[in-house]
Amino acid sequence: MGWGLARVDTKNEEDGFFDNMSDRPIKAKAWQSYTVEGIIDANTKSLSFGGLCLYNGKFYFDKFELLIENGKGVFEPITVLNASFETPIKNGEIPKWDLGISKNKIVKVKEFKITSDKSSAEGVFGLLIEGSGIKIKENGKIGNIEGASPQIGAMISMLEDLKGRVEDAIKDMSQYELDYLHDEQANRIGSLIMHLAAAEAYYQVFTFENRDFNAEEKKKWSTALNLDQGGQDEFKGHEVQYYLDIYNQVRAKTIAELKKRDDAWFAEVQKRYDWTNHYCWFHVMEHQSSHLGQVLFLKKRIPPQKELRLEQKIKY
After folding, report:
1. Residue 109: pLDDT above 90?
2. Sign of CA dihedral 208, 190, 241, 61
């Protein structure tokens, strides 16, 4: 499915106009015109507009127009550079357009291929975005996981739902935002993602192998597990995908190992804490939820990144 998009960002950080056509997705297989209408006012800082695509398929875009109503009630056309995508695309870059809706935050999704195409509504070329190999996650459902017993399946789906929320919260964050330290007692958001991965890795060995971390695992995970000053010093200077790759690797192992077990295993007790395996993985789940709240709290308190401005030209 495809959509048009218009979004207003305001000067005072309040919600502005937003319409991504989610209530009227584009499914037609022939060229048609679609309109998104909204309000911009003196509080508007910027207007983002363009197209969205979702899931697998071929999505065609062409002939974007922007009209703004003047004080006399007349809609005046505003020049949109490369509005009909006549400038050929090279290396997946769309000339005069950005991938993403935030300044200097390019969002490239490897499952989408971007090319020029001779199917067009105007001129020689149109824009083709083709999605392939995208796995669709079902939302709003618990359990019914292929290859898993009922309670194991329910736990996997809840773990994955919360992990998805964590990913949604951080996926577009810059390195500056991931590294931002709110105060001396806080943790960086990047370090919190490492902490989630480390805690889950610990409960893997604790429940699947009935042991604690060995020396090699302690070296790998202890800083992330304990955080504090060590976490502040170590986990910085990385892009978001660095953290997500580690988190995804840990989660893939969790799901694979849980599927090897059944509901009876869930009822077994880990004698050290007198906890059942079921409770241990419930704890991993609620641990994700707790730190998700912390991530969202910190995210809202990140100040804009200051631009370095040189008052005088550097002389060589």
Report:
1. no
2. positive
